[in-house]
Amino acid sequence: MDDVRHTIEVEGVYKVFGRRADTALKMLHEGHDRDAVEEATSAVCAVIDASFKVAEGEIFVIMGLSGSGKSTLVRTLNLIHPPTTGVVRINGTDITTLSPRRLRELRTSTVSMVFQHFGLFPHRTVLQNAEWGLEVAGLPVEERHVKAMEALELVGLKGWEDSYPGELSGGMQQRVGLARALATDADILLMDEAFSALDPLIRGEMQEQLVELQQTLKKTIVFITHDLNEAMYLGDRIAVMKDGRIVQIGSAEEILQDPANDYVEAFVQDVDRSRVLTASSVMEEPIATILRREGPKAALRTMRQRQVSALFVVDPGRRLVGVTLDDDVMEAVRSGEHSLDPITTSEVPTVSPDTLLADLLVPSAESRLPLPVVEDGKLVGVIPRVTLLAALATGTPNGVADGPADDGALESVAEPAASHEPPGSPDAEEVSE
Amino acid sequence: MDLDRLPRIAVGDWVDAGVDWLTDNLIWFFDGVSAFMSALVGWLETALLFPPSLVVVLAFAVIGALLRSWKFGLFTALSFALIVSMNMWDAAMSTLSLVLVASLITVTIGVPFGILAARKNGFSTFVRPVLDFMQTMPSFVYLIPAIVFFGIGKVPGVVATIVFSMPPAVRLTELGLRQVDKEVVEAGEAFGASPSRILTRIQVPLALPTIMAGVNQVIMLALSMVVIAGIVGAGGLGAMVFRGVTRLDVGLGFEGGLSVVILAIFLDRITSAFGERASKRTSR
């Protein structure tokens, strides 16, 4: 972890609003809880002891409900809300000590921001909005135009540059906001609930566009959201905030599989797991396999032993060659065939380890066999249908199921697969047939 | 014990003493202000009265037509011609120059104060009761110290008018600036803009419709005060109305009053046209 370059480092940041912030801070240090402190001092403790690091090129999501302090926390990263105490380092420099002039330089060159309600200037055209950061930086007019136009093109707003923000739809307005932030070439992008004000369809579109842009731009992004699905979709890592404190930091899967406390657990209940978990997190050890050079007889023996009706044929080094079925193996043994090659079909649907569970449903439904998980041609695991169902079922909130009967059914299927360790997979296949 | 009486607190005496001290010690200042204002008013009045009156009427009509509509231009031409034919033209132009000079000074003082009030909560809480005081004090009262400091004539009229019409300039500027979407201001800040750039490029343009509404109010209040100032020799339509009152000459009073109304309509429509233009540009 230490060889990763950290663009943003936040250490022990507190943000307390109010006249008696110092007293409140002291009480918090003494270990009083937030409600007691706010009661005693009438200060507002928006952020309490936040520490995290964001690696270069990472999308770091800060997630929490309204009032959890997430929007305040993101504003401490460009000192729109200077922290009451604590250190914020951007590219190694402690920005809390910068002079106002240097701070403004940092904002024009290194850190830019996208706002929940877009924060566009209604009296300026789309182009003039996109130019704002460059204008502040003092760039010549020509250069401003070129860069702003590039940014507008990047977000798909070419041809709209002379319109006013009021003439655009919400999604397009936020694209202007994004273009304004991208135009300055800042390495760090702070996105404060950037997509929350958009309707769901447009929101999904914007999320996809952001992920797409990120693949080429490789910015360091701090993304604030109250929507866990959005957090899980966008975030390389996620910090969950509650009442001003960060309660857990981890990848989407870590948070989903191993919630730090009841709060996080309750929170992640509603998540669509199929869009977060990947094949690698649910796949099982492939044991129904046979080496290509072993013949049909060996294959038949293995099938008997493992009580399965199909085997994955692999090269030494676990390179997946194909699949062979029991009928064909029987036939081959009877006719004295010595090679597995004629009875191996290579037309097997495979998935990669980072395929989302949601994208496994169709191939899994279409195939009688467990889905082989293949990385660089190597068979790294298999996903029997029941395993997939079980993974989707655990943690599914009651609210989603149609009724208790459904729930029970899911659990009874889930139970055996979950309780069986490695030998589970061939059995599971039997069940699915 | 006498329950009807309290010891006399000599508020009036203190004010007198304060005014005396000011006249004794700051006479150079008042003389300077007086010279500056009468020069300004005199210059504008001359400019308005130098060309033939019908040419000026036509000029106003063109302004009205350009800023609003040809209908309003026509209305301006006819109503201002009526002022000319009622023999009120000189008085009306004198009043107009007083109003414009007073409003100009009010806005140049009031808007910066409004900006300050929008930025500093402390200043805002301090200035609010002062503005209340200025607005509710009967307007005649301003004339008394104004005469003491500046003597009889146009200048005390202008000064009293400035004091009386200041509140809306400060208030609506503050309101307009505070109404600017917080996120929009933050967006300015987040890209490294300096406070002065945020003020001039974002806040003031977006607050302009409200500020213009304040300017409109200032001009209307100034007009009403300038008429009252006619009593202390500020001349113009106020003097006509006042003469009508003292001589019980209903006709003269009405003609003067009607001219005031015509000026008021003209000034109101013109300033609100500016405000509408500003709001068309800033609305989302």
Walk me through what this model shows.
The complex is a heterodimer of chains A (433) and B (284). Chain A is of the alpha/beta class and 433 residues long. In chain A, the strands form four sheets. Chain A has a six-stranded mixed β-sheet with strand order 6-7-8-3-9-10, sandwiched between helices. Helices cover 41% and strands 21% of the residues of chain A. Chain A has helices spanning 21-29, 34-41, 70-76, 100-109, 126-137, 141-154, 170-183, 200-217, 228-234, 252-257, 262-268, 279-282, 296-306, 326-334, 361-366, 385-393, 404-419, 424-432, and strands spanning 6-17, 44-55, 59-63, 85-90, 93-94, 111-114, 188-192, 220-225, 237-242, 245-250, 289-291, 310-314, 320-325, 371-375, 378-383. By secondary structure, chain B is mainly α. Chain B has helices spanning 11-25, 27-49, 53-67, 70-85, 89-119, 121-136, 139-150, 154-179, 182-190, 195-229, 236-246, 250-282. Chain B is globular, with a radius of gyration of 22 Å. Chain A binds chain B through residues 75, 78, 80, 103-109, 111-113, 115-123, 132-133, 136-137, 165-166, 177, 180, 184, 190, and chain B through 181, 183-184, 186-194, 197, 202, 205-206, 281-284.
Give me a quick take on this structure:
The complex is a heterodimer of chains A (433) and B (284). Chain A contains 18 helices and 15 strands.
What topology does this entry show?
The complex is a heterodimer of chains A (433) and B (284).
Chain A: E1 6-17, H1 21-29, H2 34-41, E2 44-55, E3 59-63, H3 70-76, E4 85-90, E5 93-94, H4 100-109, E6 111-114, H5 126-137, H6 141-154, H7 170-183, E7 188-192, H8 200-217, E8 220-225, H9 228-234, E9 237-242, E10 245-250, H10 252-257, H11 262-268, H12 279-282, E11 289-291, H13 296-306, E12 310-314, E13 320-325, H14 326-334, H15 361-366, E14 371-375, E15 378-383, H16 385-393, H17 404-419, H18 424-432
Helix pairs in contact in A: 1-2, 5-6, 5-7, 6-7, 13-14, 16-17
Chain B: H1 11-25, H2 27-49, H3 53-67, H4 70-85, H5 89-119, H6 121-136, H7 139-150, H8 154-179, H9 182-190, H10 195-229, H11 236-246, H12 250-282
Helix pairs in contact in B: 2-5, 2-8, 3-4, 4-12, 5-6, 5-8, 5-10, 5-11, 6-8, 7-8, 8-10, 9-10, 10-11, 10-12, 11-12
